[in-house]
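Problem 12. The chain below contains 281 residues. Write out its predicted structure in token notation.
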Amino acid sequence: MNNNDLSFKRKERKYIILEHTFDEIVEEIKAHLPIYQFEGKPGLLNMETIYLDTEDFLLFKEYLDRRRFRFKIRLRRYGYDGIFNPEYLVEMKVSHDSISTKKRFVLPAEHLDAFIKNEDLRAVIKEANNGLIGAQKTYRIIHALIKINQFVPVLQTSYNRIAFQKNSKRVRITVDNGITHKSLLGKPKTETLDAIVLESKIMGKSPKWHKKMVNQLSLLRQQRFSKFATGINSIYFPGRGKYNFYNDDDMSNPEIPQKIKDSFELLKTALKLEDKSLYGE
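Solution.
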């Protein structure tokens, strides 16, 4: 992993696919982009993600309320044939004014429990991320956010992914299927989605072939789609429906919680975000 893998700024578009098979999708995209080789291994990648939130689902409710500013913290690991790497990528994803910023650092799997308990792992992170600029700063920010919000693991999501990307990294497309959610709070529960999800991540202007591909595959553009939200909905609030990404009287929180205000102040300084209203004005 190099320094460029730790930070991203790009516009994202998400689509649901209903009319084509996974193989048909792969063949269409291969005509425009090569299959991305993760750690030198091309093809289908196993993904497992642990999402953090408060015990009363503060970040989930903020997502539903469509704030101008949102963030989430997740721990992701990769594998092939069900065998996962001995490390997690801890990711902080911040959305502000429709721009997504992602910061990462490497966490050895044997320190997962200590990280969840928010123990001081500065020495571990320094050694595991030797030479990766910004990793220790990202760890300090996430460590502070966990303390401010008292985050705990709430959801584990697993799925299979194939990615497409040229060396320039200007356009990246991922296709996910077999999306399965598992509860990490309360009683054990598992739910699997029946949708294939395609995500385009583009820096700058979209290439002409991208629009043609959208038409060719009958992609259904989603104004809002989130694996995190579908997981929380299907596991903890099944009455809402898996794909309901909008608030209601029970979920709505018109007043910005103090924890979110404190988190924004921290991230505004650390990431140099524009000082605009959290209300989206």
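Discussion. The domain at 7-271 is CATH 3.20.100.30 (mRNA Triphosphatase Cet1; Chain A). Students who got a different answer should revisit the alignment rule from Section 12.3.
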